[in-house]
Amino acid sequence: MKILVVGAGATGGYFGTMLARSGQDVTFLVRPARAAALRAGGLRVVGRDEEWVLDAPRLVTAGEGPSGGPYDLVLLGVKATALDAALTDLAPFVGPGTAVLPLLNGLAHLDALEARFGAGAVLGGVAKVVTVLDDTGAIRRLAPLAHLALGERDGTVSPRVKEIRTVLEEAGIDAPVPASIVTAMWHKWVFITTFGAVTSLMRGTVGEVYDTPGGPELGPAVLAEAAAVAAAAGHPVPEEERAATLAVVSASGSPMVPSLYRDLTAGRATEVEHLFGDLTARARALGVPTPLLDLATLHLRVHQRRIDATGSGQ
């Protein structure tokens, strides 16, 4: 299978490296600066007492033309802040038979992908990894988790989904095909907005928030709002998943923060509209009150306006 990974960051780079190590034909579509760094030092995944290195990853940069394409599978591993540029960069590499599997959180990207490539090209996906891109450009693996759920958005289990699942699992990636991938995407969205709101609103780690008087009540309150939106949209969150989310945001001493928090505190652009703006807009349309999520959205929008005004944050 010919695979194009768009982006070589903490998520796309991690999955792409695993696929390449398993013998798959993998190319990374990256920006020129990232391409130069990867050509000089290779693509490295470090941590957990292991180091994986692709000394000479196959690379292509935007504007070079559809080198090696069209591809059978595209893994779209960029953040929402880079989505518009990525769609333009990606277009020459997508053919009539290409399956596009996005790794973004939220749902708004599905409409953008469908408008650009057609509904038939776009799968649903839910990625779960614990990785960061460190100061050296290496992907640092903080836990062994490598989970990528996928599926057709109409719930059918198509031949292409079966083939992609096999390829992923042969690379050591847990690749379930849930009964409804859209429901799975909603549930991940509830988790990531709860996690992001708790830490970003309070500007602290999970443990710092939880261990402060009044802190233990925040996580359950935010989760209740996000889960209410999902339920009103027809995707109620099962009790076991709610409990798992609460366990993450209610851990004394936990140093955990999401990537949104790291972007916020580093003065970078965040996925505020994709994750929070879209969710709160859906809440209004569904008649679900979300005062804490509204507050988190406002907080992040103020930050984003400052970023936009100064032209910084990339």
From TrEMBL:
<keyword id="KW-0521">NADP</keyword>
<dbReference type="InterPro" id="IPR013332">
    <property type="entry name" value="KPR_N"/>
</dbReference>
<dbReference type="InterPro" id="IPR013328">
    <property type="entry name" value="6PGD_dom2"/>
</dbReference>
<dbReference type="Pfam" id="PF08546">
    <property type="entry name" value="ApbA_C"/>
</dbReference>
<comment type="pathway">
    <text>Cofactor biosynthesis; (R)-pantothenate biosynthesis; (R)-pantoate from 3-methyl-2-oxobutanoate: step 2/2.</text>
</comment>
<comment type="function">
    <text>Catalyzes the NADPH-dependent reduction of ketopantoate into pantoic acid.</text>
</comment>
<dbReference type="InterPro" id="IPR008927">
    <property type="entry name" value="6-PGluconate_DH-like_C_sf"/>
</dbReference>
<keyword id="KW-0560">Oxidoreductase</keyword>
<dbReference type="Pfam" id="PF02558">
    <property type="entry name" value="ApbA"/>
</dbReference>
<dbReference type="InterPro" id="IPR013752">
    <property type="entry name" value="KPA_reductase"/>
</dbReference>
<feature type="domain" description="Ketopantoate reductase N-terminal">
    <location>
        <begin position="3"/>
        <end position="153"/>
    </location>
</feature>
<keyword id="KW-0566">Pantothenate biosynthesis</keyword>
<feature type="domain" description="Ketopantoate reductase C-terminal">
    <location>
        <begin position="181"/>
        <end position="301"/>
    </location>
</feature>
<protein>
    <recommendedName>
        <fullName>2-dehydropantoate 2-reductase</fullName>
        <ecNumber>1.1.1.169</ecNumber>
    </recommendedName>
</protein>
<dbReference type="InterPro" id="IPR036291">
    <property type="entry name" value="NAD(P)-bd_dom_sf"/>
</dbReference>
<dbReference type="InterPro" id="IPR051402">
    <property type="entry name" value="KPR-Related"/>
</dbReference>
<dbReference type="InterPro" id="IPR003710">
    <property type="entry name" value="ApbA"/>
</dbReference>
<comment type="similarity">
    <text>Belongs to the ketopantoate reductase family.</text>
</comment>
